[in-house]
Structure formats: C-alpha cells, structure tokens
Amino acid sequence: MAQQSIHVWAGTSDKTEEQFYKYFDQSKFLKNNQDLNLRCQFCKDLNLQNAYDEDWITIYHGRKRVSIQAMIEELPVWNDQAEVEIYQACIQKGVSTANAIFSYAADELTIENQKATNNGLQYIGRFNIPA
C-alpha cells in the first residue's frame, strides 16, 4: 500500500484570522518567482525555494480553543491509526487544546528546526498516511 508523508503543526495562535492566513499568502511570489524575498513566510520558514503546492496544504484557524481531537478532524487524514499517532504526538508535546492547525503533505520535505514555531504553532511531526 502506498503512503504519503504529512507534516503537522498545531497549537494556539494569538494572531487574527487575517494575520494567520497571511503567513501562507504566496500571491506576490507567484507573480514574480525570480525574487525569493517575495516568498511567503511559510516558504521562508521551511526554506522552500519554490512556491508550495496549494493542493497539498490544509489550514484551519478558529476563534476559540477546542480539544486537539477536534482539530485533528480538520486534517485530511482518513486513517484511524494515523489520527491516533498525531493525537499522541500532540499530547506528548503538550498540545491538548488548540485554535489552529495546519498540515503539508510532502514526502521530500525535511523540517530542519523542529523546535521553531511556525505561525505561532508548534511542529508536531511527520506522519505516514496510507494513500
């Protein structure tokens, strides 16, 4: 069975919804992808030299904190075992409630600084999801 890697970040962001989504806005870079300074902050934080594939990212920002189980339901994961692994990793990292979560599916992506916060959220880990 084929698998796909999904990277997950979760936590509580103190940013407004507009500020939170601006972190992923790559519209300026898409207009002029010769200027790496125009990359969105998400791309800069992950050291992506190109635009990220918008088909492979899932972003959710809510107004109030809810259980991490409810946040995981927002991810494109349809495998109970993978959901349990993500939940356990969140709890292990001290994330039991959250108001935001995002994931990016990319087999080739390596997160250099796993302790850094991205858009105010903590990197939870890389998980293999059956495709």
Name the poorly predicted regions: none
Strand content: 25-35%
Question: What is the helix tally?
Answer: 5
Largest sheet: 5 strands, antiparallel
Structural class: alpha+beta
Count of DSSP strands: 5
Order of helices and strands: EHHHEHHEEE
Strand order of the largest sheet: 2-3-1-5-4
State mean pLDDT (0 to 100 scale). Answer: 92
Which descriptor suits the 3D outline? globular
- The helix content, as a percent range, equals 25-40%
Give the termini separation. 7 Å
What number of structural domains do the residues give?
Answer: 1
Summarize the structure.
The protein has one domain.
Structure characteristics:
Imm22; 131 residues; alpha+beta; 5 helices; Immunity protein 22 of polymorphic toxin system
